[in-house]
């Protein structure tokens, strides 16, 4: 075993442990945040906020489709041109734009819900508001992600981005951070996530084998004969 192979294996183990440590608290939040936050809000009489969260959960997938239409049109246009003129970079560009657009929508959705629920934090306990807001953010995204293939990396990264962004904003709020710091932090984590997805799309697109044309195929057959 070479030193480089050993290093790669060690890095893989570290990455797996890090993901495991991250997934466990997220799983707990995903399971209990809605129930705990909802019951807590009901106890303190905040039925209006509970119903508002449910409405947002139901409406959000339709809002997502409408907001994604410009990027979907761009993907269809550039993807068609890339296949027609054998220019894979066009398809890669379209996929990258769609990824960035989707990440921006995720951050915007998280920020919208976070602001909607924390604006009333002075009149209501902040913890149940944050928990119910987390459930409101996560539920529609998780529902949409469950309908995607299991190997849809971009979809699950978007869900992870939403969870981490909301948790980061919640921590900053409890720590007394200013609005500028919270906005900058959310934008930064969104930018890093979008960049990682763009890089993975670019690498996958550039590694894709170029299709063989009919002329090249006929030439290969003639030479073999």
Structure report:
The chain is 86% helix and 0% strand. The protein has 7 helices and no strands. The two termini are 44 Å apart. It has 225 residues and is mainly alpha-helical. Residues 209-225 have low confidence and may be disordered. It is elongated, with a radius of gyration of 22 Å.
The biggest beta sheet, please? none
Q: Compute the number of strand runs.
A: 0
Distance between the termini: 44 Å
Radius of gyration: 22 Å
- The figure for the number of domains is 1
How are the secondary structure elements laid out?
Elements: H1 3-43, H2 47-84, H3 88-118, H4 126-146, H5 153-174, H6 179-207, H7 214-224
Helix pairs in contact: 1-4, 2-3, 2-4, 3-4, 3-5, 3-6, 4-5, 5-6
In summary, what is this structure?
By secondary structure, the protein is an all-alpha fold. It has seven helices and no strands. The longest helix has 41 residues, at 3-43.
């Amino acid at each position: 075993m070479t030193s480089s192979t050993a290093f790669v294996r060690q890095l893989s183990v570290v990455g797996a442990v890090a993901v495991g440590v991250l997934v466990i608290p997220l799983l707990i939040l995903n399971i209990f945040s809605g129930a705990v936050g909802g019951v807590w809000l009901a106890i303190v009489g905040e039925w209006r906020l509970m119903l508002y969260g449910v409405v947002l959960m139901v409406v959000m997938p339709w809002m997502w489709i409408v907001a994604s239409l410009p990027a979907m049109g761009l993907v269809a246009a550039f993807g068609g041109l890339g296949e027609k003129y054998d220019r894979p970079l066009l398809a890669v560009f379209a996929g990258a734009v769609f990824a960035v657009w989707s990440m921006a929508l995720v951050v915007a959705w998280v920020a919208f819900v976070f602001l909607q629920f924390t604006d009333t934090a002075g009149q209501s306990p902040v913890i149940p508001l944050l928990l119910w807001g987390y459930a409101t953010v996560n539920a529609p995204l998780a529902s949409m992600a469950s309908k995607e293939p299991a190997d849809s990396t971009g979809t699950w990264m978007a869900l992870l981005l939403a969870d981490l962004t909301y948790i980061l904003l919640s921590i900053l709020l409890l720590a007394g951070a200013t609005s500028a710091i919270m906005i900058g932090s959310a934008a930064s984590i969104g930018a890093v996530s979008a960049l990682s997805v763009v890089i993975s799309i670019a690498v996958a697109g550039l590694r894709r084998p170029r299709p063989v044309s009919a002329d090249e195929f006929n030439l290969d057959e003639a030479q073999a004969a």
